[in-house]
Amino acid sequence: MTGVKMEENYKLEKKYRIPADIFSKAYLELQKKLVFPKSRLYMAIFGILAAAILLFGIFVVSDGTAKQKYSVFLGFVIACAFALREWYNPKKTRRNVVESVKRLGEPLYSIGIADKYVDISTVADDLSDIPEEEREEALKSDPLPEKTRINIDESFRLSEYDEFFLLLKGREMFYVLPKKDFSEAELDIVRKLKN
């Protein structure tokens, strides 16, 4: 089996899989933290703008020309469309990302937790029953991504939920760590990353 060479100074070294339903829940929680606040702000802005345009149309342009009424109506529809877009886009993005993850299946991952960093990597499937030439060709045609090292610093955040942990490195990286395959002692090691 082709695997990932692990460091000797890990406090915890574990392999795990992320079920699609856990990933979906984790991605929703990520959106609640990073996407929904901004999206809701823009929805409110466009909603207020739509209401203001509608009131302007009712009270100011009600006796105006057909062209003025049409312009007010068009402005109202555009503001409503932007508000609706801000509501719909996060849902569409989540659906697309979760579908992409489902198509991957459930790859095997490995986590290594040290004092000042966390290493996460994808582990190759067991290819021992495949002839050596085909095994090498399979690894060349579909190489594994490099191990990712997440430094535990001021930009690192760990959030715990009932079924998983969400590891965030700033706003650009997130990792899901399901709890189901971890013992209570191992979960305590993960929890201590917050400190």
Secondary-structure content class: alpha+beta
* CA(first)-CA(last) distance: 36 Å
Number of strands: 7
User: How many helices does DSSP assign?
Assistant: 5
Mean pLDDT: 86
Name the poorly predicted regions: 1-7
**Biggest β-sheet description:** 4 strands, antiparallel
Radius of gyration, whole Å: 25 Å
Taken in chain order, the helices and strands follow as EHHHEEHEEEEH
Q: Give the overall silhouette.
A: elongated
Beta-strand content estimate: 15-25%
Biggest sheet: strands side by side, in what order? Answer: 1-2-3-4
Instruction: Give the helix level as a range of percent.
Output: 40-55%
List the SSEs and their pairings.
Blueprint: E1 12-17, H1 20-34, H2 36-59, H3 66-104, E2 108-113, E3 117-123, H4 132-141, E4 148-151, E5 156-160, E6 164-169, E7 173-178, H5 184-191
Antiparallel strand pairs: 1-2, 2-3, 3-4, 5-6, 6-7
Helix pairs in contact: 1-3, 2-3
What does this structure look like?
The protein has 195 residues and is α+β, with helices and mostly antiparallel strands. The chain has helices at 20-34, 36-59, 66-104, 132-141, 184-191; strands at residues 12-17, 108-113, 117-123, 148-151, 156-160, 164-169, 173-178. Strand 2 (108-113) and strand 3 (117-123) form a beta hairpin. It is elongated, with a radius of gyration of 25 Å. The two termini are 36 Å apart. Residues 1-7 have low confidence and may be disordered.
Concise summary:
With 195 residues, the protein is an alpha+beta fold.
Keyword list:
single chain, 195 residues, alpha+beta, 4-stranded antiparallel β-sheet, 3-stranded antiparallel β-sheet, 5 helices, 49% helix, elongated, disordered N terminus
